[in-house]
Amino acid sequence: MTAMINLGRRAKAAAQTLAVTPTQDKNRALEAITAALATHQASILAANADDIAEAEAGGLTDALIDRLRLTPDRLQAIAAGVQQVAGLPDPVGEEFDVRTLPNGLRVRRRRTPLGVLGVIYEARPNVTVDSAALALKSGNATIMRGGSETLRSNLALIAAICDGLAAAGLPTDSVSYVDKTDRSLVLDMLRLHTHIDMIIPRGGAGLHTFCRENATVPVITGGIGVCHLYVDASADLDAAVGVIHNAKVQRPSVCNALDTLLVHPDVAGTLIPRVVERLGADGVTFRGDARSTALADGIEPAGPEDWDREWLSLVLGIRVVDGLEEAVGHIREHSTGHSDGILTTDAQHAEHFINVVDSAAVYVNASTRFTDGGELGLGAEVAVSTQKLHARGPMGLTELTTYKWIVEGDNHIRS
Amino acid sequence: MTAMINLGRRAKAAAQTLAVTPTQDKNRALEAITAALATHQASILAANADDIAEAEAGGLTDALIDRLRLTPDRLQAIAAGVQQVAGLPDPVGEEFDVRTLPNGLRVRRRRTPLGVLGVIYEARPNVTVDSAALALKSGNATIMRGGSETLRSNLALIAAICDGLAAAGLPTDSVSYVDKTDRSLVLDMLRLHTHIDMIIPRGGAGLHTFCRENATVPVITGGIGVCHLYVDASADLDAAVGVIHNAKVQRPSVCNALDTLLVHPDVAGTLIPRVVERLGADGVTFRGDARSTALADGIEPAGPEDWDREWLSLVLGIRVVDGLEEAVGHIREHSTGHSDGILTTDAQHAEHFINVVDSAAVYVNASTRFTDGGELGLGAEVAVSTQKLHARGPMGLTELTTYKWIVEGDNHIRS
């Protein structure tokens, strides 16, 4: 624990500096990091080549290796992302609920950084840079812990980031990295509530569960989406096929992709064959309940556990439900509370669905793929929360802040 | 775990009803609970008398027994509190960040209840009723677990609450109570993240630590205040003595009472003897550093651990610090981030203190005793959070809510 406490202490000291660093100085540091990523390109790509060689020797799949790989283009895109963060509005310092109470006390709340963020992630090295940039812009220090497959790449990226911080005169302890691959250090990190204010896991369900089970630091859990679309009897079926196709096929490996399609019996006979034809042409396979398998060829019977699967691939569950209430019941039982929608032209059904479905994002006549900080207008995305505390759904810069109460008086005492 | 899962399932079903219950129906239930507390008075007081008899036989201190005791007056005050909650504005349903994006998607966020709250508390039976009322008003179900010393009183109060709920046609599962005193049930409750959305501990530091160490449900930690006032060289000393007296003496047993006084050397020789005289007359004893003990009779030397003590009694730590920076350094090291203040007439010093002291409530020229939802204008108080996620400082009804994103389109797809 000593090593982690020392890291935490240094990060906390850096956070105290960042908390009072003006916006223009933080932006200057982001520009310097952008520049440093370019000047460090050779060492970053060399480190990444070593990671890739080890991954190939270790027999990782091509798909996973592609996620680890950095190229000059990808690195440039990562650097451009940092520059874009510099252009976003700074949430820190905003004041709200400004009031003078009847007794004359002047009360307001001021948005402040959280302090120290812990980011625990897997695979993609771009997370290292994205997280550091978003944390820095919102005045937070970061302690990062990436996957062992990208250790060399991450350390090379961190070296560039620290060069940028130093060039801009900000503490290099603002961004630090847990460079041992020992899992006990992750446990230490999860329990360092004296020095870390929030843990953000970025990875699969296993990582989120591990963090929730072991952390004493507050954790943002999320990113796991068993997502539903319910096609109502009144839906525009031509449009519905397009929305379903987009939600399933546009990027099947992500959390806001469609997992289960629920269909009203009045339109199931028309819609399901069309869905199977259109999505099947793009390689989608189907798992259906007994009523849907009877309506089209090529639907395998679904097992009971299939309704709780986040497919992350070109598989779609299909179930015929007896109307809106049964659709809502299915969603209540199987949704992870990420993104669920209704396709309907009936305004009352839409309103009912919005009211009773308790998910981070509830859709009417749109693809679930829009649950994303960039798509919904936050300018950036740190994570998608499916828990209800602090922030729900896409989290942007504001969600990396807290507030303090400021109370000014004329030597007021409480009576 | 089975018993707790069943309780959780019923609470979650009740929460789904409460989430769509109109404000007037929730208010009607609060009125019915107010009435039921009056009609149940005899059984509640009888149950409380049994608890008190057992506490006396068990040798509990008079001070603790007084905290457990219900009288007709106290019960009436509790019922009046429920009626007052009925009069507060309902935060549920409020919509914010309403926008139409460039692509035509209509996006907004709507405030919704958290769902199921777990309240784990000690001693005072009024917490049973207060928590149930605030949760109900904000559309949440509650699972409560009070101390074993008040089990009979709490069950009698819950019976009255459930009668009120039933009379108003709301599910009686909206408020439930873990009526075994077995500690393993608390552990089950802390780990029921599938059914409980937030745990609110109300009690001492030990309870908060136990919850943080063991919960997989998000916990609001707080309520522990090692609170400071720093008297600057420029302070109005007459006024300062009054503020210090109020912060320490007005109610010494609570979390926002003053624990440590920090004094600038220029005014220490004048101020400290006056503080010792004025507060000493009300029974306060003092623990000081070497410089302060030299300035007045009756200050015992402080041990190093005394600077981290939440006294909760008529004891005050006093330390002479070499100006603002050393005061801030002391606060950074020893504050629990609850309530800390500066007494000064120097606007620049005040502004610096506000900027760099990272506590839930930061004061200028006022007593720390104002850190309270009622005092700061929230209308009610659920808890005082000293963590940074979700809510910081006093929590009112709004802090018992989350939000959902509502996205409406015209069959929009992501490109």
In brief:
The model of chain A has no long low-confidence stretch (mean pLDDT 96).
Secondary structure layout plus pairing:
Two copies of one chain form a homodimer.
Chain A (H helix, E strand, L loop, with lengths): L1 H18 L3 H17 L1 H17 L4 H7 L3 H15 L8 E6 L5 E8 L2 E6 L4 H12 L3 E5 L5 H17 L7 E3 L5 H8 L7 E5 L2 H10 L12 E5 L5 H13 L8 E6 L1 H16 L4 E4 L1 H4 L5 E3 L13 E6 L3 H11 L4 E5 L3 H10 L4 E6 L16 E3 L7 E3 L5 E12 L3
Parallel strand pairs in A: 3-4, 3-6, 4-5, 7-8, 7-12, 8-11, 9-10, 9-11, 12-13
Antiparallel strand pairs in A: 1-2, 2-16, 14-15
Helix pairs in contact in A: 2-5, 2-7, 3-7, 5-6, 10-11
Description:
The structure is a homodimer of 415-residue chains. In chain A, helix 5 runs parallel beside helix 6. By secondary structure, chain A is α/β, with parallel strands linked by helices. Chain A is 42% helix and 21% strand. The longest helix of chain A has 18 residues. Chains A and B meet through strand 2, helix 10, helix 14, strand 13 and strand 16 of A and strand 2, helix 10, helix 14, strand 13 and strand 16 of B.
Mean pLDDT of chain A: 96
Helix residue percentage of chain A:
40-55%
Rg on CA atoms of chain A, Å: 24 Å
- Strand adjacency order, main sheet of chain A: 10-9-11-8-7-12-13
Q: Tell the overall outline of chain A.
A: globular
Largest interface comes to:
A-B, 71 and 71 residues
CATH topology of the largest domain in chain A: Aldehyde Dehydrogenase, Chain A, domain 1
Oligomer: homodimer
Q: Counting H and I runs of at least 4 residues, what is the number of helices of chain A? A: 14
Report low-confidence residues of chain A grouped into runs of 5 or more. none
Return the string of H and E elements of chain A.
Answer: HHHHHEEEHEHEHEHEHEHEHEEHEHEEEE
Total count of domains of chain A: 2
